Structures are given as C-alpha cells and as structure tokens.
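User: We ran a pulldown and think these components assemble together. Before we commit to crystallization trials, I'd like a predicted model of the whole complex to look at. Sequences follow.
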Amino acid sequence: MEEYPEEWRTPPVCLISVVGLAEHEHHRLISTHLLSEQPPTNTLALPDLSKLLHLLSKKPKQPLDATSSSSPAAGILKRDWLIKHRTRVPSVVAALFSSDQVYGDPAQWLQVCSDLDLLKAAIKPRNIKLVVIVVNDTLSDHNDVYEERFIALRKRAELDSKYILTFNPNTASDLQISLNRLASIFGELSLAYYRDEGRRIKTRVEKKTLNVNSIDLNIRYCFKVAVYAEFRRDWVEALRFYEDAYHMLREMIGTSTRLPPIQRLVEIKTIAELLHFKISTVLLHGGKLKEAITWFHQHNASYKKLVGAPEVVFLHWEWLSRQFLVFAELLDTSSVPAQSISSLVLATADRPLTESEFHPSYYYQLAAHYLKEKRSSLEIALSMSESASELDSSADSVAPSVYIGQFDRLLEQGDTVSKQPLTDEDYTRYVIAEGKRFQDTYEILGLLKKSCESYGNHKARRMGSFCGFQMAVEYFALDDFNNAKQLFDGVANQYRQEGWVTLLWEVLGYLRECSRKQGIVRDFVEYSLEMAALPVSSGTDVQPFSFKECGPAGPPTLSQREIIHKEVFELVSREVGLASVEDNNCIKISRDNPLHLEVDLVSPLRLVILASVAFHEQIIKPGVSTLITVSLLSQLPLTVEINQLEIQFNQSECNFVIINAQRPLLAATNDGLQVHRAESTPLILITNRWLRLTYEIKSEQSGKLECISVVAKMGPHFTICCRAESPASMEDLPLWKFEDRVETFPTKDPALAFSGQKATHVEEPDPQVDVDLGVSGPALVGESFMIPVTVASRGHDIYSGELKINLVDVKGGGLFSPRETEASSMESHHVELLGIVGPEEEELGPGEIEKIQQSFGLVSIPFLKSGESWSCKLEIKWHRPKPVMLFVSLGYSPLNNESTAQKVHVHKSLQIEGMAAIAVGHRFMLPFRRDPLLLSRIKPVSDSEQLASLPLNETSLLIVSAKNCTEVSLQLQSVAIDNEDGDSERVCSVQHGGENLSGPSLLMPGEEFKKVFTIVPKVESSKLGLGTVCLRWRRDCGIDDHSGSCKTEAWVVTKHKLPDVEVELSPLVVSLECPPYAVLGEPFTYMIKIWNQTKLLQEVKFCVADAQSFVLSGVHNDTVFVLPKSKHILCYKVVPLGSGLLQLPKVTVTSVRYSAEFQASNTASTVFVFPSKPDFKVAADVGKREMESIASE
Amino acid sequence: MATTACFIIVSRNEIPIYEAEVGSAVKREDAAQLHQFILHAALDIVQDLAWTTSAMFLKAIDRFNDLVVSVYVTAGHILRTSTQINAMTFLLFIFSLLNPLYLPGSRITSSHFDTKVRALARKYL
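Assistant: Here's a predicted model for the assembly, 1318 residues in total across the polymer chains.
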C-alpha cells in the first residue's frame, strides 16, 4: 500500500483557502478550527491576494473541452490531478478584510473593491465559491457608514449577504461563535462546489457515452465524478462511478490502440489497480467486508489471465502479487471484527467464500506465491535479454510520464528537456533493468512471515506450517541454512506428529541438505536415517508424476530410501571421513570425531532402531541366573550389520557386551570389567524383523535391576544408544503404526511379549536369623505386659542390627506409620509401648534405644556372631481392652561393610488380646428389716435416669464385688473406697463392713470376691459422690515362682467409679423387730415400729394379715396417728405353730399423707422356727452369721 | 490447462490413509507435493467447520491459487479431502471399510481400490 501516493491512500478532504490579513492570528485560528471539525477541512492560508492569483493562474491546463473535442487524450488519468485538487485548488476562497479597511476611509475601501474584482476574475473560470470575511478587530464605531458600506460590499462581491461574515476575534465566546459560523458556511459552500463540479462532469459523461474513441475521457470523467463524490462523502455515488470507470477500463483492453501493446496493458492495469484500490477502500470503509472480498475476487479473476507479452510476463506476476498484498494490507487495517467471519462464511451461499479468504494471511501468502512467479519469470527474462550493462544505459533516460501508467523517454538537449514516446522494446529493457534492482526473495520472506504470523494468530497451525515451509525453502535458496533449518524443524515436527509422511519426507530432504551444507555430521546422519526409515514406499511406488520436480529429497520411493541408506552407512562405516564431493564442509566421522546418537522414547529415530528388553522372571533371587531377551527392530530398507552391542543396566556390574563373532574384534573394547559374550551368528538387522538375543544374567545385589539402554556399534566410530523399552508397555512405532506390515513380537514367547518388563526385582538374601516373640495368653488391662523378644542367629553375623517395633490397632484397619500416630491425639493410645527392657533386666541405655513412642520403637542390636542370641522385653500397657497387632522387624546386614552392605529383613507379627482382668460391680442395700420411706422412689420416674436413693442418717450397705474375668488366677491385695473429696467424712461416712484382708487373697478364674461397706449419708443431697473403688491386684505366678521374676511385678490398681447417689430424708421409717429365731409353741413378740421423722402429724393405716403357721394376738386393722418426731410401736404376741423357715404374718403400713404403702419383703418377714429349743451355747454367733449371709444374698 | 486431482483419505487422527494423484497433468513449476501441502493446510478449516455444520460434503472449502479443496466428512469423521471433486470414491471407501480384515485407521493398501479410484477419476475429470 505504501507505494501509492498519499493522496490515493487517504480519503479526500475538502480544501478551502483564506486570503489576506496574514499578519494577524486569524489564519492559524481558522485553519486549526476547520481541521478539528468533523469532517475536517484543509485550509490553504495565503498571506495576500497575489499568492492566490499566482496559484490559480499557474495551472498548465487549457480548458477541458478544447482537448477532448479535437484529439483523443494522450492518457487516461493525469498523475497530478488528484493532488492538485487536494492541495492546490480550493473549493472556497475566503477573503479577509479588516473592518478598518471596509468601513474606513475611502482609499482603503477602493483597495478592497479592486482586490475583490481581481479575486472574482481569478476564481470565476473554476467556479470556486467566494466568501468575504470582515474582521472586526477594532471596537471603533462606524454606525453611520456601516449599512451603506455593507450593501456596497455585497454588491461589489456579488454575494448573498449571508456569505459576508463578520469575524469577531475579540472575546473568546465571540471567537467561538464566529468560527462555528465560518465552518458551517465553508462546509455548505465546498459541498456545493464539489456537487456542481461533479454534476458538470457528469453531464459530459452522459454526452460522451456513444463516442467510442473517447472512452479514455469517459473513464477520466467517471473517475473525477467519483472523486468529487468522495469529497462530498457521498460513498454510494463514488462507488458507482468508480465501478463504472473500472468496467469501462476493462472493456478498453481489446479496443484501445493509442499506445504500443505492452505499454497499453501496463497503463490499463495500473489504472485498474488504482480504481480497484479505491473501490476496496470505500467498501471496507463502509464495513462491507463480504462485498469487498467478492469484488477482489472478480478483479482477480478478470485480470489474472491478462498475462501480456511473454518477455514482460514478470510484470503481470508482480502486478498480481501487488493486488494481493494491497488487499491483505487493507484487510489488516480494516476494522471489521474477526468474530463475525464465521457467520459470514456460512451466510454466503451463491459463491461460497472460504474461511481463510477472510483473513489477510491468505492474501499475504498468495502475494508471496505470485511474487515467486514474478521472480522466476524475471530470471528467464534476464537470461534472455542482452547483457546487463546495456540494459542499465538504456534505462537511464526513461521517466514516468504525466499520465498514470505511462513512461516517456527524456531527451536532454542542452538545458531543455523534451519527452518522447517509448517503443515497446525500450520499455521492456527499461522494466527489466528496473526489476533487477529489487530483492524479491526478501520481500517474499517478509510476506510469508506476515502470513505465518497471521495464521498463527487465528490458530491455523497447518496453514502456518505450509507458510513456514515456503519460508524455509526461500532461506534454503538464499543459503541461509540456520534460519532454514530452524523453520524446517518446526514444520517437520508438525508433519511428524500428524503422520503426513510424504510431506515429512520432503521437509527432511531439505533438512538433510542443510546439515550437509553446514557440515553437521550428527544432524546429517540423523535426518538420513530417519528418511531411510520413513514408510513412504508403500503404495506410492508407482509414481504417475515422475516428471514432477522434487526437492532435494528426491521422489518418495523405496529406491530413494535405499540410496539414502547406502549413503549414510557408507559414511559411518568408513574408517576415514567421507570427503564431501561438493564442498569444503567435509562431513566425516573419525577417531577424533566419533558420532554417538541417542534414541529415546520420543525420538524420531525410534523407527531406525528400537530396543526391547524383557526379563523372563519378574523376581529373581540374588546370585541365581535368569534369562533376558534383548530384541532389536529396524525399519531401515536394507539390512544392517551391528559390530557389537552393549547392554547397560542400572547395576553397572551386570553390563555385558555382545560381540559379533564374525567380525574382527575391535581394539577399543578391552576394558576388563565387562563381560563379553560372543555371538556366533552375525548380528544382522533385517527390515521389520526382530533380532532376538537371549542371555543369562545374574545379580548379587538386591533391589531393582533395570536395563537402561542398548548401545549398538555400527561403524568404527559410530554408535547408537537406544533406550531400552519393556515389551509390555512399548508403544507402536509412530509412523509405521498404520502401515501394512507384518507385526511380530519382540520375544518368541507371546506371553512375554505382552507382559515382559525391562526391569526385574532382585530379592534380598534369605535371612538366617530367627526372631521369636515369646508371649503366652492375653494381656490384662492395666498391667505392664512383658513380651520377650529373642533374636537368634542361625548362620549370619548381625551387623548394625535394628529392631523396629510397631503397634497397630487391629480394628483400625491399615497399618499406620509412626508419623501418623504422632499426629493423632494422645487419647487414642489405648495401648502403649512403655519401654524396652534389655537382656540383663535393666533398662536399655539411650544409646541402644534409638526411638520410642507410644506405638513405635526402634532398638539397635549389638553385634552378634553366628549362633549367638540376644533378647529383650517389650513392656506394653493396655489402657482399654482391645486386640493389638505387634509387628517386630529386624533389619541387619550380614557383612561388616557399612556403606554398601545391603540389609536383610526379618518380619514377625503377633496379635495380642488385651482383656480387662477384673469386673467390678456394686449394689446398695438398706439395713435388714428397716425401711425408710424414700419419696423419690414412689415418684413415677423412669429407671434409667434415677440415681440410687439413700436415706439420710440411716446406715445403708454397699456391696462391692470383683470378679476375675481372666483365665489366670489373680492375687487381690485390697479393696478400698477412695474418696477424692477431702470432706467426705463430714458428708457421708463409708466404713468397712468387715475386717481388712490380712494378705493377698487368691482369686481363681471366674471367682468373685465381695466386700461390704456401710454408708451413712450425713447431708441431704440430690447428687452425692461416693468415691471410687480401688482394687489392687496382680497376676498370681504361683508359689514356686515367688523368687522369680514375678516378685518384681507391681500391684495393678483397677479403679471403679461408684455412681452418684441421691440422699434424702425419709419421713417415715418402718422397722420390723422379731427375735432371730423362734421355737415351736413358744410365744414371742413381733414389733412394728413406725418412726415419724417429720414435724407433722402422720396418719398411718396398717393391716396385719393372718399367717398359717402363727397364732397372733392384737389389732388386725387400724389407723393410727404418729406424733411428730416420735415413734409408734405396734406390738403383737405371736406363737409359731409349725417349724422351719416360716412366713410371719404380713404387715402392710400405709401412709395417708404420702399415699405410700409399705409391705415387708418375704425375706424380711421370714423367721426360722426350731421344733424345740436348741442348745445354743456356742451357736448364737453362728446363727447371727447365717442371718447375715442370708441377708446379703 | 489440464486438471489434476489429488485425492486423500484422512483418518480421524489426521493421518492420511490413502493418497492418489490422478488426472492428466502438465508440468508445473510448483514445488513437489504442493497438493498435499495444501490439503494438509486445509485440515485447519475442516477441523473448525466439521463441528459447526451438519453437511457432509463441504464443497470448495479452501482455495489456493487455482486449486480448490473439497472435503467429504464421513459420519465417523474420516475425511476425504480432494483438490477436485470425486463423488464415487466414497462408495469404494465404504466397500473397503466392509472388508473384515481392514483395521480402522490403518492405511488402505489394496491395489484394487487404487485402480478403481483411478478409473473413476478418468471418467469424471
């Protein structure tokens, strides 16, 4: 676009002129104001009238009618017409006069009049509009002459009064008003001017339509009308007339004879280009993207075939390329949003535009394409034309003519220069000489780069690749191999990825040449090998287009692959370097300059060589040999012989080398460390056939044994290091995947081919050490449970042994590591590792215990010789009954070699139950035959919530029972109730019912031990804590063992919290009194005492039922009143009639106030009757005891 | 100018599975494989367009100079791009798909298929 002159590229802007009063600021004020208006107006500011007169009279042209009617025009458009109208011919002339001049003395007035006359004469032939501006810069009063002079001025200027303006620059507001008025008047007048001019020329167009000869003129007129319309911003009309001109021009091609044919075509094309440019600009300016593109295609279609004379065909290509470039730039700068494009594509039905045609990149690309055409045709033209110097001399005197698209010869005769028409031969020489000056290649590169970037912007990678490829080819042609290679590499990646093999072949061919020319051996070999291994041969061997020009790669055929293969293997297998035929960049591989290629999983060279390694076993024992299969696959077209193969492992001592026995041993291989294995059959890689080699291998070191790589030596100084792959996880060859080829397995055994791994696991040597956990029976909650651990060596010495102890919750699921337990809350440690006791019954020093936590311990073990043993005890305490898994693992090294020694591990685990040793129970009892009325008991409250109630100041009994739940017998030392509160004595007295245990009492499994306490609450309370039962016990180890380890065993305290009780004052206490026994026939007194503890009178009903075995005297039914704080006694004389355990007469006492009924329990109202009076000399005590024991049950 | 057509079947992972250049051709100055380069580049457009339209035959989807690219997108998004239009080959392609020994996505190497394509091309070009 830059090659067009400025006036073509920008839309036309109206031009006005101001004349006179240059010494003031007015010119600047007016011109800046007009320029800032919308639409802007350019101002031609002239200081005085003479300048304007000079400007307008300078025009070289005679009236249009004169030339047009007499002779046909010498050209279509004049080169300077447009710029003339934009910069020199104003549409409006504004004459500035000061008010002093107009309203001043007559001499000045006369001057004004004469100026006006001159001005009018000058602008009349051009129909330029006139405006007179009176600048009112003084405030002097001219009222008397004002009206008169104003009319005179108007008459003199022959103007409507509204075109005589007063300009008031004195105050800012006046100035602004004046400027605005000026602008509107100027706008109106220039619009009128351009419309009149347009109309004037339009009539000529209509007049001339029939005249074929004056088609040139018609085009010119149409063009002018369009330009005038553009001045008026009438885009529709401008477009119409531009199109008219364009169409007429197209018709002219066959008819015009004015110029010699070559120049004629050049002129037409040049003008067509300008017209097209205008049309496109107008269309795009109006946002009509689709129309613009369609127009461009029409333009392109109608001129594309007009190649012109063969010797200047390059002009055509240059012209076409420029069309695309200019349109691309227009699209680039146009503001049509990109997102609407896709909708546009679909909307166009009749002549579908493709999506890429909406992007400038497409046009840049084609511009480059045609420029390439131009370059090649120019080269042909140059080679055909005469010697260069001749061209240069003849080109000197040719210059552009006054008409667009024409050239003249300048003839200098002294000072005067005259112009002469050119012949086509001269012109041809001239353009060829001109064409030589341009560096087309760089321009092509620039265009392609733009196109590539633009494609990249809308993510058309493949289009971009194509552009990149074209660029790279240009760089290649320029011998700029660095740039070319970089671009080719990017493109090759794209094609490689998508498997377009033929294209990849093409690109690789260039890359190979690049590296050959640059002398980079590695790249050359790599690209050659890749090309040789490409699957191009299949199906395309029959090339119908053998004539087709190929790139440096040659045709993509099998034979070409073979040629490349041979070439590269000749290079690598030669002892001396291959002196490249063509250049000094000698490509060679020598001792000083060896070549080592790496092939990894993503390398394109996987096609060349693919190594699959499979161990036959997934787990092997140390020192035991296993089989390993190394398989190699190549897609090279010819067979390749390998000199030697080195198989490398992560354990370097396992590495071994396979030597081709048929080849002489190479001198370089004698490093003593490696194992050499000779292969009798030659190591030959055949196309697409696995070379399978199976060997024995063994490793002494436990852990992972992995094959890392296979290094194939193919020439004296050429090796390929190939990353080993497992057959199980091997990916298909990228490009060969879909080819028609025989698929074979890398190993003979198909199972191994699917599951084989390149790594195997070498086991640890078998441990020759026993770890024993000597534990018997379950652990008891609370005790320190000792677990003896014995480490006994059976064959290995133990160096730097370490014992790890882990306690893991069985129910908790997975094993948790010590770190996790550390993090978890302390509450969760129901089982705790307390310590580790060494073999000599002493705590191990801090040096031995490396770490100890609640569930994890680490102990180091001293050096043990074979046959020795060491033991320790783990002290574990259960806080809750639960099973626990104990893991003990011993790690040691059998050799005294700290750094390299590998550890051997022995694991032991054991589940240990934790049990509660003693179940503690309790029971509250009221005294025998004494019943306090406890009001809380009669309330209907659900049992679960109710606390046990004890009567205040009464003696209640607490029976604590302890049952041995274990399988072993226990020793019970004491049972006591601990009261945490200090003032418990005041609140409630708790006392032993019997004597203390004299010594530890033995509790057999399942046996229950009971102890009775008496409780007398002294304070009324709704919630009284009674304390905790503390049992002290230990495992009974038997009498024999007293001197043994058990003696040190501490007493274990098991605690049982007693529930809180409610203490209340009972309003009534009923007690039954009768002798402990009775004798048949002997009467005794049976008393029922009712004790009223309240301060109220209590009404009590009672009822005594008859009993079968007793005769009874006294009231059966009655109601009595018991006085406050006093006792009422019902007394009955009773005679037993039978013997044995007999039921006394049933007494029912009912308190009316509390509506509570009391009935003595069966036990309480039972008495033993002897048949005759027994002899009770000793037995009185026994009877009493018997009674107690009965009561306690 | 005589017509040349390059006919390529592209599998859904953008790998060409069949290539044929048919038609009578005059020698061109173009770089070798120009047709293939253009067809490959046109995949950019096809990729975008195949998901936005339900039409299977995308006629003249891309142009480069005189070359016109048309694409037939099959239901399974196997593309047949061609620098000229050739309707009958689709049927052949279906036949080859019906072959039980044909692995989808792999190259079509049947010489029978090749001859048929070329015969059709002679008929229609």
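The mean pLDDT of chain A is 77. That may be worth checking against your pulldown data before setting up trials.

User: Thanks, that helps.
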